[in-house]
Amino acid sequence: MDFGPYLLLASLEGAVTAAVLALMAAGLSLVFGVMRVVNVAHGEFYMLGAVLAWVVASAVGGGPVLGFVAALVVAPLLVGALAAAADVTVLKRLDYDPERTIVATIGLLYILQQLTLMGYGPEARPVAPPFNARLALPWVEWGDAGPQLYWPWGLSITSYKLFVIGAAVAVLAGLWLFMTRTRVGLVMRATQLDGEMAQAFGIPVERVYAGVFGLGAALAALAGVLIVPIQQAHYLMGGEALLLSFIVVIIGGLGSLAGTVIAAVLIGMSDGIISVFFSPTLAKIIATLLVAFVLVFRPRGLMGKAAR
Amino acid sequence: MSTLLSTRALSKRFGGLTAVHEVDFDLPEGEIRALIGPNGAGKTTFVSMLIGRVAPSAGAVVFDGQDVTGLPAHSRVALGMAYTFQITSVFARLAVAENVALAARRRLGRDRAAVREATARALDRVGLSDRSGALAGDLSYGHQRLLEVAMGLAQRPRLLILDEPTQGLSDSEIAAFKALIRGLAAETTILLIEHNMAVVMELADTVTVLNFGEVLAEGTPAEIHASAAVQAAYLGTGADA
Amino acid sequence: MTGRGREIALHGGLVALLAVLAFVLPAYHHGNVARVMVLAVYAMGYNLAFGYTGLLSLGHAMFFAAGMYGMGLPAYHLGLGAGLSFVAGLAAAAGLALAVGVLALRTAGVAFMIVTLMFSQAAYLTILLFGTYTRGDEGLVLTRASRVLAGVDLSDPMARYVAALGLFAVALFFTLWLVRQPEGRVLVAIRENEERAELLGYNVFRHKLAAIVLSGTMSGAAGAAYGLLFGYVGASFAEVQYSIFPLLWVLLGGAGTVIGPFLGTLFMFYLIDLSADITSAYMLIAGLALVLLTLFAPQGLGGEIRRRWAGWLP
């Protein structure tokens, strides 16, 4: 394949990564923004979403579409409920003390991961995509007779991958509308600005926190469900996803939804493109160091706004 | 008497708000100076710039002839300034004696006997000797304030800045505190940020009044008491004097 | 007994007990306890930063690994002797700790945790990147010849045990000495109230940097010793898990106590060792322990002992 079509292919693959990453990171960012909690177990909620998708899809039967749709509904709900329960039983009792909360979510990470290993096993398992038509893509070439279209061999994307991109855009738009246009969203943002003040105004901060933690986890689980038809479900898949979402959230500015989405697109796209040129290990080293240096020298994130 | 501390055109702006505006301030060695002013006059911001907790937007702080404007707080303390917090800030989970010993040790280093002696003396002066083994966090609020003062004393500073030391103290504790400060006057220069006018009138050699971040008046307690401008400032903002 | 006497009796007694155990323990536990002592040095190093200074690092595996590879690479590739390799390991860990400290200490709290986590992850990936020399996950097996220190073959079980005990005793008494020094007291003051310590005239940044360098060097000593005594240097020791372990050991044993890291390492080692016989998901124990400790016993075993029976415990 020529370089141009190759780059287009890499960008499309990057866009899929970016879409999934944006969903996951939005959850992490939401939880940090409202609760000031850094949830290290976030990657495990993503993994649980993927594993539950396999469980639900294999339990339902009746074709890939029905199984997938069931997973899309059930997995985020279950994971969200589980996270809300973890908030009430563990995080709330720690008074959301930042450092102790992190230690507790590290514990939660291992509990979820190891229970999955015990129940689901060490295998990687696929879920059939509901639809998977291969769409060939054209490329323009300047020949002797001016520009002309042609279909390079190997330049294609599946309809499912396009669906993932579309679904992520729709969910994120919905999340944005929810946070800015609805009463519940307003209550969440009020809690984000000042927890004590919100409490004084009769906002049930405890329930808001449980809801936000559940919603954040549900977003990660949704990302997990969307990814299983492309990548298989495995009990260790949370680690790398967590690292990438950390990178996105920190570069985008902790707690800023718009910054998170922009950073996800940037990282997701560049992850696809960079790995064309560099070894993936070197790319990851650069990314982790970038996060560290952003926190050291620009703690509000590259795109973060000035302090309120 | 030589000037121990002075500021020139010292200013602090927070965003659009000017908390302290071009303050020139001179404190001669050996004096007890009170700094008063209505709430929001910029007193705490001003002393925070003196000790180095807050960086000024403009102007200079000179201590003992040396420009300390660019120095971090710990260097200023090493030069002989000490600061007691307005909101008590002791090491709550450490013993009372260890709190004071930490203050003394910076000066005395590894000399354990000297540290022990300085600690005992400072605790004795504030009347906390019998509580030296207790955890600082278990002390009553008034006793924690006295512990703050003891930590200031143990540093044997040339300038002791006390930020609202009598806030929340009972009448009997205030009486004891006044006696303590009077006893200190011979050893150190004292800058007292104070709300309680009775304490100011009784202790201060000179009073400086801040209002809207500027020096409104300066004089003896009697002069300040008589000043119409000062009274207007307090009455205008809801008197607490 | 005076406070000083009690402390020396307790910690000297522990070292003496471990020395006696060298001749009593059956082979399996003999090897385990040697391992626990080396890992306890790692935990004690971590405790200097976390327990005494209040710096919660999530990246100490990089210091452990710096010691291990700083020792292992010259020993493996250049045939450097055990003594010099060990010193090289210490130097590598100290240098890395200094560099990381200067950068990471510009942040605090949660940002500090994430920055150390990221630096450690970058260090792990760097080991993988230079797979030609480090042989990545597969690791390096040190030859017997490179594990001879002053004529003693460290691959011999008894020699290994004695060397581990020696390092352990040095780290234990160094910590005991340090926390009694004015510098050690300042570290505790910084943990308790950083701003107050600064306003008592202490250079907080320099003290924290010193704490990180000491902590990193002690962790590196444990890493170098682990490589020498057990003959293996591998990238898995640089993974996130190895940053979480010392946190877990110290939390369990009691942060900010001298003896706590050893207790925590010993308990957790055997807990995981026993559960590994039952299930492959042995990290479940670690996860449960982290959550339960944070919820119900943030002071750990040592803290509980101090609170209930022995307020003098250093």
From TrEMBL, chain A:
Main location: membrane
Membrane-topology annotation of the record: Multi-pass membrane protein
Family: Belongs to the binding-protein-dependent transport system permease family. LivHM subfamily.
Keywords: Amino-acid transport, Cell membrane, Membrane, Transmembrane, Transmembrane helix, Transport
TM spans (from-to): 6-33, 45-62, 68-90, 102-121, 160-179, 208-230, 242-267, 274-297
Subcellular location: Cell membrane
Pfam families: BPD_transp_2
Species of the source: Rhodovulum iodosum
Name of protein: Branched-chain amino acid transport system permease protein
Alphabetical list of CDD domains matching this protein: TM_PBP1_LivH_like
The keyword Transmembrane is annotated on this UniProt entry: yes
From TrEMBL, chain B:
PROSITE patterns attached to this UniProt entry: ABC_TRANSPORTER_2 (PS50893)
Domain ABC transporter: 5-237
Molecular functions (GO terms): ATP binding
Family matches, as Gene3D superfamilies: P-loop containing nucleotide triphosphate hydrolases
UniProt entry keywords in alphabetical sequence: ATP-binding, Nucleotide-binding, Transport
Superkingdom: Bacteria
Annotated Pfam families: ABC_tran, BCA_ABC_TP_C
CDD domains: ABC_Mj1267_LivG_branched
InterPro entries: AAA+_ATPase, ABC_AA/LPS_Transport, ABC_transporter-like_ATP-bd, BCA_ABC_TP_C, P-loop_NTPase
PANTHER family the UniProt entry points to: ABC TRANSPORTER ATP-BINDING PROTEIN, CONSERVED COMPONENT OF ABC TRANSPORTER FOR NATURAL AMINO ACIDS-RELATED
Protein's name according to its UniProt entry: Branched-chain amino acid transport system ATP-binding protein
Organism: Rhodovulum iodosum
Record lineage: Bacteria, Pseudomonadati, Pseudomonadota, Alphaproteobacteria, Rhodobacterales
From TrEMBL, chain C:
One Pfam match: BPD_transp_2
Sequence intervals crossing the membrane: 12-29, 49-71, 78-104, 110-130, 161-179, 209-235, 247-272, 278-298
Lineage: Bacteria, Pseudomonadati, Pseudomonadota, Alphaproteobacteria, Rhodobacterales
Top-level taxon: Bacteria
Matching InterPro entries: ABC_transp_permease (IPR001851), LivM-like (IPR043428)
CDD domains for the chain: TM_PBP1_LivM_like
Compartment(s) of residence: Cell membrane
UniProt keyword terms in alphabetical order: Cell membrane, Membrane, Transmembrane, Transmembrane helix
Topology versus the membrane: Multi-pass membrane protein
Name of the protein this chain belongs to: Branched-chain amino acid transport system permease protein
